[in-house]
């Protein structure tokens, strides 16, 4: 009997030293480009997003290719080559958007799914790794459901403190999770790239 090895679901996010990630309306001055996360991943052939972040994601990355002047206005600068490259990859890669409220999308490769079990089904299909773009609520839900295999972080030398924008990466997590450190790579400007693997069947360590 032929068995299929589950695909790897990997989230790549940017985070402050005290664990804050920034939402679509947050101040991203202390972070690099949101395109940076894709560089932390192996080849992927599907993206997964939560419904909360998708409308802004769709508007921004679509504008980079279709309306560069609008994208420049959002950024306050011209899109970087890295952001243009991300937009091109995203435009060609299927996106699954987990949402109970969204009813439609103009993103040509996006489809809306209503239940996290559809993400579980995606994981069982043959293919490459899956990029879990975010946001934090989706990441927490996938961890709780035992569906997130790896977490890759760009850790910035910034402490948001009580005035932190957005929300804590693990703010919605109920149970303690044990992770295994796979790699730690110091980068420029005090940043560190971290890769963790969730310990299967061992939520508490």
Task: Describe the overall structure.
25% of the residues lie in helices and 27% in strands. With 205 residues, the chain is an alpha/beta fold. It has one domain (9-52, 93-198): Dihydrofolate Reductase, subunit A. The strands form 2 sheets. The protein has an 8-stranded mixed beta sheet, with helices on one face. The chain has a two-stranded antiparallel ribbon with strand order 2-8. α1 crosses α2 (68-75) and α1 (54-66) packs across α3. The radius of gyration is 17 Å and the shape is globular.
Quick synopsis:
The chain is an alpha/beta fold and 205 residues long.
Distance between the termini: 34 Å
Q: Can you tell me the overall shape?
A: globular
Number of strands: 10
User: Low-confidence stretches at least 5 residues in length (pLDDT < 50)?
Assistant: 23-27, 201-205
CATH class: Alpha Beta
Rg, rounded, reads 17 Å
Core attributes:
Dihydrofolate Reductase, subunit A, 5 helices, two-stranded antiparallel ribbon, 10 strands, alpha/beta, 205 residues, 8-stranded mixed beta sheet, disordered C terminus
Task: Set down the secondary structure blueprint.
Blueprint: E1 9-16, E2 20-21, E3 44-50, H1 54-66, H2 68-75, H3 81-92, E4 95-98, E5 110-113, H4 116-124, E6 129-134, H5 136-144, E7 150-156, E8 167-168, E9 179-186, E10 192-198
Parallel strand pairs: 1-6, 1-7, 3-4, 3-6, 4-5
Antiparallel strand pairs: 2-8, 7-10, 9-10
Helix pairs in contact: 1-2, 1-3
């Amino acid at each position: 009997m032929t068995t299929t090895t589950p695909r790897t679901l990997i989230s790549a996010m940017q985070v402050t030293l005290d664990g804050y990630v920034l939402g679509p309306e947050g101040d991203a001055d202390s972070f690099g480009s949101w395109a940076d996360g894709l560089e932390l991943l192996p080849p992927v052939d599907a993206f997964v997003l939560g419904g909360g972040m998708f409308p802004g994601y769709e508007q921004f990355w679509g504008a980079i290719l279709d309306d560069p002047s609008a994208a420049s206005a959002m950024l306050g600068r011209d899109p970087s080559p890295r952001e243009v490259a991300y937009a091109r990859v995203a435009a060609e890669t299927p996106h699954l958007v987990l949402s109970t409220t969204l009813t439609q999308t103009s993103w040509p490769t996006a489809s809306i799914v209503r239940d996290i079990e559809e993400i579980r089904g995606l994981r069982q299909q043959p293919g490459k790794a899956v990029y879990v773009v975010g946001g934090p609520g989706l990441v927490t839900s996938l961890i709780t459901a035992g569906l997130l295999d790896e977490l890759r972080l760009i850790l910035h030398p910034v402490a948001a403190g009580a005035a932190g924008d957005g929300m804590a990466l693990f703010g919605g997590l109920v149970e303690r999770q044990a992770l295994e450190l796979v790699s730690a790579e110091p980068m420029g400007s005090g940043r560190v790239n971290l890769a963790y693997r969730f310990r299967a069947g061992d939520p508490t360590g």
